[in-house]
Amino acid sequence: MSEKVFKEVKKPEKISSYFKMELPVLIVVTISGILYNAGIGVGPYYEGQLAGKLYEVFKGYSTFFDVLKLAITYVVVLTFVQGMRAIKRYSVRVFSNDVGRLMRHTLYSCLIRMDKEKLNKEGLGALMTKAIADVDICSEGMRKFTTEVFDTGVAMIVYISMLLFYDFKLTLIAGIFTPFAYFLANRLKKQVVRANRRQKMSATLLNHKTMDRVSNAITYRIFGREEARNEALEEALNDYEKNSIKANIFEGSMTPLYNSLTMAGTVIIIYIGSKNVAGSGFTKWDIASFTTYLAVFTKFAVKVSRAAKLFNAIQKAEVSWGRIKPLMKEIEIKKSLLSQKEIQKVNIEFENVSFGHFDNDNNFKALAKSLSFSVKPGQIVGITGIVASGKSSLGKIFIDESCYEGSIRINGEEFKSLSSQQKHEYVSYMGHEPELMSNSIYENVALGDETDVDKWLDMVCLSEEVFEMSDKKETLVGDGGVKLSGGQQARLALARTLSHSRSVMILDDPFSAVDKLTEKIILNNIRKEFKDRIILLISHRLYHFPEFDHVLFLHDGKGEFSNHKLLMENFNDYKELFDKQVKRKDLDEGDN
Amino acid sequence: MREIIKKILKKNMGILILMTICIVASVLLSLLPPLALEKVVNTLTSNQRVGLELAFLYFGLTVISNICESAKNSSITIVGQKITHGIRSILGEKLNRLPTDYYIKHGSGKVTSVFVNDADTIDTLFSDGIVGMFADGFKLFGILFIITSKSLGLGIIIFLLMPFIYFLTKHFQMKTLLAQVDNRKAIARVNNHVPETIRNIRMIHVFEKEKYMEDKYDDYILESYKAVNRSNTYDSLYSPIILIIKAIVILIMMTTAAAGEDFQKFFGISVGSAVAITAYVGKIFTPIEAIGMEIQNVQSALAGIKRIEEFLKEEEISKEPEKTKLDYVKKDYENCEIVFDNVTFSYNDDKQILNNFSFSIKKGEKVTLLGRTGAGKSTVFKLLLGLYFPDEGAILVEGKHPGEINFKERRKIFGCVEQDLKEVLGNLREQITLFDEDITDEMIWKALDTVGLRNVVEKLPEGLETKMKAGLFSRGQIQLLSIARAIVTSPSILLLDEITANLDSDTEKQVIDALNNASKGKTVLSISHRLSTFMENEKLIYL
């Protein structure tokens, strides 16, 4: 596989797709695997021959050079066989590495295209375990399966053929114990599976409990619950220990016992084999045949006892695959052209719009009805409302997290009918959560695009603070921005939104964690920079509403689209909301 | 670290001794079957019949050695698990002693990974590493002894070969280890990237940054991919090379045995011992190879162990400096519930956050801390909660220094409403009790009543047993739950950390009502950078 460019898997939900995709590697595996396993008998064969030759030398039938010749042949052939083995081992590992990488990649591609709601349903922790742990087990299982097809499958055929060739009857008799070993392994398989499943469950529980203990450590400390939580962790540890021991014993300690069963055949082999050498058995043997036969049978017994391990590996892989599979979908990756698209001037028209959500019975529940208004490029609309009037939901219409009836048109096109690409082309959105990445301040603003980060940091009044940080713009902000204060997080998120903004900007309470003076400067900066964009500013703070082109006031399932002055005159609720804040304003000034 | 493991082993002495016995027995017994085989072949070469008893001896030895092997594996597993368990318990205890700073600076994913992945490597280190090495070293010695006793020459050859094999093995392991360390690093990044994506999914969609995120992810998995392939190369070459060496040793043995009397004296073998020695030579490489792998296991585990050691070495919570425990303070503020007396504080000698800052709050007072971002409002809380200690000056809460308040008293004194509810793993009841079984249902319902959530919870089919999951509650309701968590133990002081900061006014009113309800008769200290809301009778402190 090439290093940088991924060929996407077709039908990633089928395990065979991965085998198909890795066909060239698998061909190498097949050729080297067959050659290696066909040559697997070389060792015992030549070792037996050498012992036989040595006997002949002692008896005077052969010379030193015969032994030397045979021994050199032995080394040369074995070197070839082991060379094949090295190739097989390497290519099989490349195969599993490729598959693991492909699966991880595909899983992630699917994950990143799921919407927020769906992701929440899946559960964050579960997804993480799924995506990461299972891929490893699964690709490891595929590696073991591929390996064992040759190392057990082909090798067993080679061994059995050799045994049959040396003495057909003896092999049949000595082999009668083998099915018992298989039978026993199969009988115990159920227990093995159950023990494994229990262990896996314990492991998941332990992981969750650990994650909970660590991620809520500060909370537990504040509430004085640290000791108690450690006791709970200890319980999970006990449970995990118990189940792990059980599972491991089933898995690791049974093999020698299966081996013993199969090895019962050696009694017959030694007894009848020695008769063979003496000439009174089934076949006429020399000593070389005797030692080769016994050595091959011993190796055969080892393989048989390992067959159970093969079941386990495949079984584990199947369980993991079962969890991964539903998450895998074929994804058509389109390159985003968003940053190259010109930002158009747009009009927004609302005509008799009701918005809200669908409830569980699929009935539309409107938060507000019959909104009609239009907004022109360059205008800023302040959106506010009384408690539970649905301000945020109004903004979420534009990211498809709320629904609407009636008609919303952007430049005359119905919003519903736009593709998501077109929607993104028109609208940028910033919600309550800052949604920061754990990398640098610079990266958080630029998101891989070329943009003047300094300018955007200036615009949100963050430059000075960034300058004081140890690594300036390259300062890492930590998981979700933890290393920044709440206000810094909000402003960084705003800088990012501004730098990627489109024709319409929806800002849902962007200043809630910013003090008032800063808010004023930022707002002025934004208005200066974006003269021909539409800004929908959703806020419960109305200081700046008098300066806005329009104000949309939501109340009692209705919306008044007007301006500050008229609303103050005509709507008591609005006036109350505003006055209350103006009163507080004096206090806030003390801030600055 | 070593001490910790010693302590754990001491605790499990019984099973440890059993394990040792099993290992010794299984090694000794596994050496016996070829000796029986030698007897069989020698009997054959002297043209005698092999009796059934010899056949059964061979089989019997095999079976007994297998049973011992089985017992050995089981006991190793048990001891290994006991050790990982012990280490995890110790890691858990460490969590209690880490400074709050640590949690702020380190992602929870990384710390969890020390618990989950790195602690597992201890099991690997033990079971597939140290113990395996002990068993295999013992076996190696045994085989070498038998070979040398049968053929001195061959023993010497193998003995001479050992350093070569050792250095070869070491070289391979070094390379593999480096590759594995790289892989682990890459995997840690992968592990962090996934939850981050989930958290930021909306932003990613709006800005169409799918490809950007994907490319980052692909970079991380590519790093891991390359590292794994490097270690694969060494992994696939090692064992074949060892087996080729084995073939060469057999070549030397057989040819020297056939080379005439002088040599034969020195190498002195019969056909039977040739067969037996071939079997032993086959066996001697198994432990050498295994030791190689075990050293590799140990080394790859070392990376994990190193991280565990680093974690255990992390600086722990410092004790409250004595000079901030001055007694005179107590007298001056007799009636005050909370006192800051000339407190100076900075995080790690950085910019001074608080400078000779003083205030006091009387019982039942409602106080709001105001100030711009970065003025140190949250720091006041952290100092109050004893998460940090002042550099100078003194802090008193109900007449005690925060560092003196033990964990059992905490919830009686403080009720802290955090900015966001930190959801814990469990049901609704546990969100409120934080698993404190001393909190009765009555107390829970009372708290729910106070914050106005009773109706909502009663309507849930499973009530308090409802499992907490996203979407169960609205944002405001979650904040209410957070208040319920704070007040369920009826603390005397309520701390509110910018709790209306991330709320829209849709929900703000609900929360404010709940707070007014909850703060009746309590001392309340809240943080706000702005007051868009009223609390009754509040006093303001500017920072």
Lay out the secondary structure.
The complex is a heterodimer of chains A (about 600) and B (about 550).
Chain A: H1 15-21, H2 23-38, H3 42-59, H4 64-112, H5 116-122, H6 124-166, H7 168-174, H8 178-215, H9 217-222, H10 226-252, H11 255-263, H12 265-278, H13 287-324, E1 348-358, E2 364-375, E3 380-385, H14 391-396, E4 403-410, E5 413-414, H15 420-426, E6 427-430, H16 441-446, H17 453-459, H18 463-468, H19 486-499, E7 504-508, H20 516-529, E8 534-538, E9 550-555, E10 558-562, H21 564-570, H22 572-589
Helix pairs in contact in A: 2-4, 2-6, 3-4, 3-13, 4-6, 6-7, 6-13, 7-12, 8-10, 8-11, 8-13, 11-13, 12-13, 17-19, 21-22
Chain B: H1 2-11, H2 13-30, H3 32-45, H4 52-97, H5 100-105, H6 108-150, H7 152-199, H8 201-206, H9 210-258, H10 261-267, H11 271-313, H12 328-332, E1 336-346, E2 352-362, E3 366-370, H13 377-384, E4 392-397, H14 407-413, E5 414-417, H15 428-433, H16 441-451, H17 454-459, H18 475-487, E6 493-497, H19 505-518, E7 523-528, E8 538-542
Parallel strand pairs in B: 3-7, 3-8, 5-6, 6-7
Antiparallel strand pairs in B: 1-2, 1-4
Keywords (chain A): ATP-binding, Membrane, Nucleotide-binding, Transmembrane, Transmembrane helix
Organism (chain A): Acetitomaculum ruminis DSM 5522
Membrane topology (chain A): Multi-pass membrane protein
Structure write-up:
Chain A: Keywords: ATP-binding, Membrane, Nucleotide-binding, Transmembrane, Transmembrane helix. Chain A: Residues 348-581 form the ABC transporter domain. Chain A: It comes from Acetitomaculum ruminis DSM 5522. Chain A: The chain crosses the membrane at residues 21-40, 60-81, 172-188. The complex is a heterodimer of chains A (592) and B (543). Chain A has 592 residues and is an alpha/beta fold. Helices cover 61% and strands 11% of the residues of chain A. Chain A has two domains: 15-327, ABC transporter transmembrane region fold, CATH 1.20.1560; 348-582, Rossmann fold. Chain A is built from 22 helices and ten strands. Chain A has a six-stranded mixed β-sheet. A four-stranded antiparallel β-sheet of chain A has the order 2-1-4-5. The model of chain A is unreliable at 585-592 (pLDDT under 50). With 543 residues, chain B is of the alpha/beta class. Chain B has helices at 2-11, 13-30, 32-45, 52-97, 100-105, 108-150, 152-199, 201-206, 210-258, 261-267, 271-313, 328-332, 377-384, 407-413, 428-433, 441-451, 454-459, 475-487, 505-518, and strands at 336-346, 352-362, 366-370, 392-397, 414-417, 493-497, 523-528, 538-542. Chain B is elongated and about 110 Å long. Chain B has a five-stranded parallel β-sheet with strand order 5-6-7-3-8. A three-stranded antiparallel β-sheet of chain B has the order 2-1-4, with helices on one face. The mean pLDDT of chain B is 80. Helices cover 66% and strands 10% of the residues of chain B. Chain B is built from 19 helices and eight strands. Classes of the chains: A alpha/beta (592), B alpha/beta (543).
